[in-house]
Amino acid sequence: MKKTFVTLAALSLLGSAAVAQDATMKGIEEYRAMLQDGNPAELFEVKGEDLWKQKRGPKNASLEQCDLGKGPGVVKGAFVELPRFFKDTGRVQDLESRLLTCMETLQGIDVKKEVSQRNFGRGETANIVALATWISSQSRGMPFNLPFNTQAERDMYEVGKRLFFLRGGPHDFSCASCHGEDGKRIRLQELPNLTKNPGDGVGFAAWPAYRVSNGQMWSMQHRLNDCYRQQRFPEPTFASDVTIALGVYMGVNAKGSKSIAPAIKR
């Protein structure tokens, strides 16, 4: 009798915890829905479109002939097919690294001098984030469909996969420590499982995003850089092969998920 009572009490507690969790999740979803109204990312979109059309740099040229993978100047649908292999550079590039190439070749801007992962909110790095915000908005609602045809793309996927599961640093963390299985959370934040398709607008399909907590617009480069910082790893350089490889891994896994970028985050 006593054992039955204990079992029923335990089940009652579990049921109460489940109800409380459901209520918490509903509250979080309502909070996120309220945040979407008046997303400050719109301001960055305006800046990004202006930068795309503005003549700048030593060559006094715009970025309107930049090829993001669908032909010179074609923006719509490009974001959901990046990272991808580009013949002209012989490299797999994500959106940010491709923009660096265009700024250098079309405008003559010394990107190595002007761009730094330490200054995401300033200078040319901030301009790239604004450009990425506007470009991503032109593919909002489209499903991710990264090209996966070349050996370079397949190699980068495998490199990204290894990096995703690589443990190290003082906490012995990896990307998979937070994003390698279902049902994980930190505080009230759900942590999507990025080893598979997490669904529309989740994980890879939600960046760039405006971070309410620090009042900044974050591109995927910034998001990945901060993950390394939190793991106490040495932070990768801006648009490095490390971050691009991780982008390929997550992007291929997100195939079919619809982009909600630019999104808004806590």
Task: Give the overall pLDDT as a whole number.
Answer: 88
Count of helix runs: 9
Unreliably modeled segments: none
Strand content: 5-15%
- Give the helix level as a range of percent: 40-55%
Shape: globular
Total number of beta strands: 7
Molecular structure report:
It contains 9 helices and 7 strands, in the order H-H-E-E-H-H-H-H-H-E-E-E-E-H-H-E. Helix 2 packs across helix 5, helix 3 crosses helix 5 and helix 6 crosses helix 9. The model has no long low-confidence stretch (mean pLDDT 88). The strands form 3 sheets. A 3-stranded mixed β-sheet has the order 6-5-7. It has a two-stranded antiparallel sheet with strand order 1-2. A two-stranded antiparallel ribbon has the order 3-4. It is mainly alpha-helical and 266 residues long.
Task: Provide tags for this entry.
266 residues, mainly alpha, 3-stranded mixed β-sheet, two-stranded antiparallel ribbon, 7 strands
Sequence-ordered SSE layout with sheet pairings:
Elements: H1 2-36, H2 41-53, E1 84-86, E2 91-93, H3 95-107, H4 111-114, H5 123-137, H6 151-165, H7 175-179, E3 184-186, E4 189-191, E5 209-211, E6 216-218, H8 220-230, H9 241-253, E7 263-265
Parallel strand pairs: 5-7
Antiparallel strand pairs: 1-2, 3-4, 5-6
Short description, anyone?
The protein is mainly α and 266 residues long. It contains nine helices and seven strands, in the order ααββαααααββββααβ.
